[in-house]
Amino acid sequence: MKRLSHIGTAAVVCLCTMPIVVQGLNNGVAKFPALGYNTWNAYQCNIDQDLLITTAQLMKSLGLQAAGYEYVNIDDCWAMKNRSATGELVADTTRFSRGMKNLTSQIHDLGFKAGIYGDSGWFTCAGYPGSFDHEEQDAQTLFEDWGFDYLKYDNCAIPFDDIIRQGIVGKHQRMSSALQNLEETVKPIVFSLCQWGWSQVWLWGATLGHSWRTTGDIGPNWPSLASIINFNSFITQATGYYGRNDLDMLQLGNGGLTFEEAKSHFTAWALMKSPLLIGTNLSAITPDIVEILTNREILAINQDSVEPSSISPFRWGINPDWTSNDSFPAQYWSGPSQNGTVFMLLNTLDEPADMFFNLTESPWIRAGREYSVRDLWSHTDNGTAIRNLTVSAMPPHGVVALLLKDAGNEPDGIYPQCAVWSQCTAENGTLVGGN
Ligand code: GLA
Questions:
Q1: Which of 16, 57, 58, 413 could bridge across to 282 with cysteines, CB 3.0–4.6 Å?
Q2: What atom of ligand 1 comes closest to residue 117's alpha carbon?
Q3: CATH 2.60.40.1180 is right for the domain spanning 4-19+310-409
Q4: What is the pLDDT of residues 351-408, one digit of tens each?
């Protein structure tokens, strides 16, 4: 039943100017980051069937579905505390009284896919039954009997060593194998590892699943966002088709973020190719937050069908390059996209700032060319950049997202001969610029 291609590969493709492309668990689903909704951030355990249906309906009426948001995912606390006499998971008989099959059918009828939450240990993080030693049985219940399409799989309540006799990879392999066994008889399932504990999951997550949480639970405040961005800035290469770093749910509209911070949050998550799972009470969401979530130019890069790589820092900015700083992460980022080079500038300071870079600091830019500049937030074409770019008076914790497209050779005779002086050398061997 298992095909070799289902075993994750780290296929490395190098087409000269192309980036390294990492490929995760290719079972035909989750080639691109999941776009959808998750109940945890807004509701924690206060969830029921009606909330899920209302949320799905709001995703339609607010235009989120039309923008590409596809998954409606239930997080923790949906189950009874005890399994059935035959060991099956049981949905809460009050809050999900119509049954999970009924719920997934309704979600499907609204044009969405449905996600559910489980745990690789004895218990979920909120104390409901975990799937350890029940992996095959639970996979059948959740995906064959109930019709879910997506599993978020958490990391709480790990069994003692003399019981599990596995490392962290083996612990997740159990459910990954159970899901693979359903691929042909039922359907391929999106497998989202929630392995936030220290485990270097970015090194092995792609062999078992489609995304992997790299950091602890996000909070609705700038320090939380800054520390997640900082951590993930060092592991961007782990992301590719079918597998990617998961920066945790979107905290837009939950209070605690300024509008500029909310834009930075969405931009960083989208351009780092994280899954984008909305964690906001949609009944109370404001139009400005919907506008952020439906920024189609930024979503298009998150879902790029040709270029799966994350953006990466090319300069840390206020800190020396490669500095790890939870409060002041890297500021200057770029990455390839099918339509040009995407840049993200983050003003990590608590005050307005000007930001400046030479275009060729980014490895995706060609020297001696000029570039048209598209602003992905104002949705305007902002002329042509030659050699460098300055953005003035960026607000505190604000972001700029730009798409630069090659627009031909720069005008002749521009000085200096090299925008970045390093190793700039005349044909006769004279080193120009002194370094
Ligand atoms: C952990 C996860 C969260 C959420 C809760 C539910 O903390 O990281 O995203 O799923 O468990 O209990």
A1: 58
A2: 10
A3: yes
A4: 999 999 999 999 999 999 999 999 999 999 999 999 999 999 999 999 999 999 999 9
